[in-house]
Amino acid sequence: MKVYKIEHDNKLRRLNENKIKLEKKVQNIxxxxxxxxFNIELIKSEFTIKNRRIDTLAFDPEIKSFVxxxxxxxxxxxxxxxxxxxxxxxxxxxxxxxxxxxxxxxxNKNLQxxxxxxxxxxFITNRFLEYSKEALGLEMPxxxxxxxxxxxxxxxxxxxxxxxxxxxxxxxxxxxxxxxxKKEIKVYDELFxxxxxxxxxxxxxxxxxxxxxxxxxxxxxxPTKLYIAFKINAHNFVTTNFTNKRIDLYLSKLKxxxxxxxxxxxxxPDSYNWGKICRFPIDSEDQIPYALHLIKQSxxxxxxxx
Length: 306
What we know:
Blueprint: E1 3-6, E2 12-15, E3 17-18, H1 24-32, H2 34-38, E4 41-49, E5 52-60, E6 65-71, H3 79-92, H4 94-105, E7 120-125, H5 130-134, E8 142-150, E9 154-159, H6 168-182, H7 190-194, H8 199-213, E10 220-223, E11 228-232, E12 235-242, E13 247-251, E14 266-267, E15 278-282, H9 288-305
Parallel strand pairs: 6-7, 7-8
Antiparallel strand pairs: 1-2, 3-8, 4-5, 5-6, 8-9, 10-11, 11-12, 12-13, 13-15, 14-15
Helix pairs in contact: 3-6, 8-9
């Protein structure tokens, strides 16, 4: 990756990449900025359970699930073996994780308050080996992030997108390890929400999705159990819920903050406990231009507040 800094005379100065060791300092930086980077909360650093040490234990309040972060120093170790070992630990000792959460957060959650099915592992390292990247294509609840440090204390975290080229032997080996885990933990994708919907809902979503992606190339699409979220800087600015007749779109603020001359928006009732958000439905492609008018406002409102 080539990274440049614009100087005062509009000339570019290339920033040199500095080798960075995945030492405690890096872990501290990530932990102090978990909300900014991943929009999750720190629960405990160096969490030890049953003689196993977890580098960073975090919690995602949006989907009510635990997140384990591992800073990989040894690239030769399989992320499949390591990841499933952590997931087995999490599922086997659920009560210990909840007790730790309650003790640190001062809350009184029980096992049923946690969505264990959306638990995930985040691996961070300087460079992943190719076979580790390939494993991402196997529907595992793992995220891979590569970290680079440049001059001027510039730090870049790049998410590795899934690729798929595993062999049949690798698939067989991974499937045997993951069978037990898959009973409780699921990787949700867009197809999960669209598979049983009418074809016109699928087409409507795909058209809307392309328009939203055109707002900003840095927009991330994150399917969860309940909805598909469109995120910028790890925060939702619009989420989509599906029925057989329409798509319900949820925006990040109350309707009073939007320019909505057609009066499409309605505030979500406080009784839902979903926060201060609003929503509107669409059921035809003719409505997409006006939907984009509202969605862009939500995107801009969120950026101003970050």
